[in-house]
């Protein structure tokens, strides 16, 4: 395993934890902690988070891109279900999951381009 695969895997896991915290903390808690990151358009937050996750996952596990996509699609769906619970008291929105999937497609295109460029150079 290349050293930078380890770095990319660690970056993926740290980013995944950050996304889960941001997605699953109730809004009053986010405000209480002074957390206000992202774009003002919620769908763009979802798409960008999952694009980055897919990109890092695709670099960290280049031979398991399909598994990374399936895992992230399930994570996105789970986030939406959990956001709809009374405990978290946020909005369950299927279109947030659609934005997650669009982000995953963008991240996948980016990682495929990086792999294509690296193969052409080396």
UniProtKB/TrEMBL annotation:
Keywords in alphabetical order: Membrane, Transmembrane, Transmembrane helix
Presence of the UniProt keyword Membrane in the record: yes
Transmembrane segments: 45-61, 68-88, 94-117
Entry superkingdom: Bacteria
UniProt-recorded name of the protein: VanZ family protein
Originating species: Rhizobium loti (Mesorhizobium loti)
């Amino acid at each position: 395993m290349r050293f930078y695969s380890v770095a990319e895997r660690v970056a993926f896991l740290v980013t995944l934890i950050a996304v889960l915290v941001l997605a699953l903390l109730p809004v009053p808690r986010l405000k209480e902690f002074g957390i206000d990151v992202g774009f003002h358009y919620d769908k763009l937050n979802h798409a960008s988070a999952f694009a980055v996750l897919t990109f890092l996952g695709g670099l960290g596990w280049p031979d398991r891109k399909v598994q990374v996509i399936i895992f992230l699609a399930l994570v996105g769906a789970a986030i939406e279900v959990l956001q709809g619970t009374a405990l978290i008291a946020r909005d369950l929105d299927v279109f947030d999951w659609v934005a997650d999937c669009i982000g995953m497609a963008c991240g996948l295109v980016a990682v495929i381009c990086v792999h294509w460029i690296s193969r052409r150079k080396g």
